[in-house]
Automatic annotation (TrEMBL):
It comes from the Bacteria. InterPro entries: Sua5-like_dom, Sua5_C, T(6)A37_SUA5, TC-AMP_synthase_SUA5. One of its GO terms (molecular function) is L-threonylcarbamoyladenylate synthase. Keywords: ATP-binding, Cytoplasm, Nucleotide-binding, Nucleotidyltransferase, Transferase, tRNA processing. The keyword Nucleotide-binding applies. It is an enzyme of class 2 (transferase). Transmembrane segments: none annotated. Its main location: cytoplasm. It is found in: Cytoplasm. Its EC number is 2.7.7.87. This is Threonylcarbamoyl-AMP synthase. Required for the formation of a threonylcarbamoyl group on adenosine at position 37 (t(6)A37) in tRNAs that read codons beginning with adenine. It catalyses: L-threonine + hydrogencarbonate + ATP = L-threonylcarbamoyladenylate + diphosphate + H2O.
Amino acid sequence: MTKVWKIDLSASGGNADGLREAAESLREGKLVAFPTETVYGLGADAANTEAVSAIFAAKGRPSDNPLIVHIAERSQLAELTAPPDEAVSRLLDVFWPGPLTVVLPVLPGVLSPLVTAGLPTVGLRMPDHPVALQLIAASGCPVAAPSANRSGRPSPTHAAHVLEDLDGRIAGVVDGGPTGVGLESTVVEFGADGALHILRPGGIIAAQLRAALPDVTVLEPSADEHKQEPEAPRAPGMKYAHYAPRGAMVLVQGGAAEPVLARMQRELDEARSRGERTGVFTYREHAGRLRADHEVACGTLGDLDTVARGLYAALREFDEAGVSFIAAEACPEQGIGAAVMNRLRKAAGGRIVRI
Ligand code: TXA
Ligand code: MG
């Protein structure tokens, strides 16, 4: 049985007992899911190999995909990595706590080798969520936490999503309500070339990184991808099909809305005539425009933060509705839209129509 600790820090008392119990479970080597400002994480003591191996088992995650380690205070950094240089310090000053994971050299022997999947580096992050920070601080350990979904499923943005995927497989979930950003953290690493490489786009956008480090070249994945050897991606997790709804998705992208919507309708009609149960992923501006068995209008094109926030719940909604074919409308790749499109492309498994 998976325990649920409801935590509302705005309520008087805030369920301090629940947080204490959850932290105690982490210390005992158990798996505890918890909210962050991005998505729910599945936490374990990052120094405990048995606990970390239980994360991989519960998620069904390939063991060559390293985990992010979460800390609650800057002082914990010194236990895990060498003193950061000026540029790294600047990133941490500006973006921590927040949705930025920085890949840094790991000190030998301080973490379970499973956390880093044998790499000499570790992805470190300080989440900007009071529940996460209190839980990590109370546990007294660095907390390894991938997103709290079964491998290949959309990441969880509500405690109910965690239970959908992991009920009975983990000790407990700290339910702190819906997460904020809705997409995972941005993962960055300084390359030998001195440039800052965005390994995974996310909650912190490229323009923010450039503003914080005006003298540093910031490379986005699209500019980077073709230079990588496909068998050795720099963020190992990026090579797996991810964020997938159960139905097949086609992503339609174009300069103007009308031809995009027309193409989506054609795809939907063809799917329907094949006997598929159809779904349409669009935005408030285009709600009700297309014929399908199920529609999700996910946020508004006028504010892409709202799209990011609702994306993973939308993908799960198609599963619940039994949809077997989804036509998805692309959004502009500006700001957080770059991260949304990165996830939509993965959800579509590369089935992209450009018109
Ligand atoms: O927002 C988030 O980052 C969430 C919440 C729970 O904090 N966590 C999360 O973890 O998304 P996960 O394990 O699902 O994604 C970790 C990503 C993967 O793409 C992995 O390959 C990359 O970070 N990564 C981790 N350690 C790395 C390392 N040492 N070098 C390169 N990439 C690394
Ligand atoms: Mg994940």
